[in-house]
Amino acid sequence: MTTSNLAVAERDTFTPTNEIDPRELRNTLGLFATGVTVVTAPGLDGKPVGITANSFSSLSLDPPLVLWSLALKSSNVGLFKEGNPFAINILGAHHQELALQFARPMPDKFQDVEFETNTHGVPLLKGAQGHLECTVSFTQELGDHLLIVGRVDAIASEPCDPLLFYRGTFARLLSE
Ligand SMILES: Cc1cc2nc3c(=O)[nH]c(=O)nc-3n(C[C@H](O)[C@H](O)[C@H](O)COP(=O)(O)O)c2cc1C
């Protein structure tokens, strides 16, 4: 899609409508069970940034691309510009408290959180099931969110029971 086509699609598709009840929309979207990630990035003031996000999805295998979206009201929107580094930390079932910690505005979200920092200054959370170290390759404001597409530069995984999010609450896989 060219930029001008995208602009037209945006105008047509994202015109506010009162035909859809927002609560019903949330409830219906919540039926789609997801995993839970914390997106991390180096902050502008040297303080690391972490945001709990379940909008994460794979986009392409070749080249390796992933996507997620960030609410435009977030104070961290300015960090996700083309070329900037970030990481997706895929959480395990034992990470529910961590997911809540990174979902609340706090002066220091990394308090008591164990992490390493990669060569680009991106925090990688210890004990996460997987890390995808990325570079922002494309962004687009759509509706009330910023769509962020990242190129995956490095990966690591240590699978365990996943943390899930379903119908507005955390969930776990039932194992036999
Ligand atoms: C399970 C879960 C998933 C979330 N997914 C997203 C998401 O995909 N995008 C987003 O912008 N906020 C999401 N949030 C809300 C953010 O984590 C929350 O607003 C956070 O405080 C944003 O951090 P910031 O304001 O420091 O940028 C999610 C929250 C939870 C609990």
Q: What keyword list fits this structure?
A:
176 residues; mainly beta; Pnp Oxidase, Chain A; 7-stranded antiparallel sheet; 3-stranded antiparallel sheet; 12 strands; globular; binds flavin mononucleotide; monooxygenase activity; FMN binding; riboflavin reductase (NADPH) activity; Nitrilotriacetate monooxygenase component B
Question: In terms of topology, how is this protein built?
Answer:
Layout: H1 3-13, H2 22-29, E1 34-35, E2 37-42, E3 48-53, E4 57-60, E5 65-71, E6 85-90, H3 96-101, E7 115-117, E8 123-125, E9 130-142, E10 145-157, E11 164-166, E12 169-171
Antiparallel strand pairs: 1-11, 2-3, 2-6, 4-5, 5-10, 6-9, 7-8, 9-10, 11-12
This protein binds flavin mononucleotide.
Helix content: 10-25%
Gap between N and C termini, in Å?
A: 46 Å
Beta-strand share of residues = 35-45%
Count the DSSP helices: 3
Order of helices and strands: HHEEEEEEHEEEEEE
Radius of gyration of CA atoms, rounded to a whole number: 17 Å
User: What is the CATH architecture annotation?
Assistant: Roll
Overall 3D form: globular
The number of strands is 12
CATH superfamily: Electron Transport, Fmn-binding Protein, Chain A
What is the residue-mean pLDDT, rounded to a whole number?
Answer: 92
Tell me which ligands are bound. Answer: flavin mononucleotide
